[in-house]
Amino acid sequence: MPGPHVFLSRSEPVDCPCNCWPARRAMEELLHQEGCEPVVVDRESLVPGQDWMAAISDGMGSAHGMLLIVSSHALQSEHVQNELAMAELRNRHDGFPVILLMLPEVTLDALERSGLGSLSPHRRQMVEWPGKDDIDAVRHDISPQLELMRAELSGAKVHHRLVHHLREVDAESLSRAGATLGVPLETLSPLMRHRLASGLLTERPSEPVSDPLRAALTELLPLSGPDASRELVQLSVTHARVPVDEAARMRGVLDAGSPRVAVLPALSTDTARRYIHRASEQPLPWDHFVVPLTAGTGVLTDLVERIGEELLEEFDIHDEETLREHEHDFGPVVVIVPHPPDTDLVRALDTAYPEGLLFLFVVDGTLLGTTGAHTRLEGLPAWREEEMNRTVRRFVRRYGTTSSN
Question: In the chain, what are the domains?
Answer without folding.
Answer: 5-153 (3.40.50.10140), 157-242+392-400 (no CATH), 244-379 (3.40.50)
